[in-house]
Amino acid sequence: MEYKYEMRKLLQDINVADEHRSNLLGTIWAKGERQTSSDAKVFLEEKFNEGAINEEQKSRLEKVIDDYTIRR
């Protein structure tokens, strides 16, 4: 649950357009939880290539993914 609040605030702080926030919030979590953190980062790269996020936004979002990744 903490992820959701942190990510929502970050998306607002880094000025991600409203129309992309919900998609990013849910898809990053789903890919990271059900697949791998690498899949979540690939999704971010796709969004960057589509122009939905810029390089700085992508970098900040990748940091959150890394912070929530549990390495075993």
Key descriptive features of the protein:
72 residues; mainly alpha; 4 helices
Explain what the structure shows.
This protein has 72 residues and is mainly alpha-helical. It has one domain (2-68). The chain contains 4 helices and no strands. Helix 1 packs antiparallel against helix 2 (18-34), helix 1 runs antiparallel to helix 4 and helix 3 (37-50) runs antiparallel to helix 4 (55-68). The longest helix is centred in the middle third of the chain and has 17 residues, at 18-34. It is globular and about 30 Å long. It starts with a helix and ends with a helix. The model has no long low-confidence stretch (mean pLDDT 93).
Largest sheet: none
Quote the distance from N terminus to C terminus: 21 Å
Average pLDDT: 93
Helix and strand content put the structural class at: mainly alpha
**Poorly predicted spans:** none
Strand content: under 5%
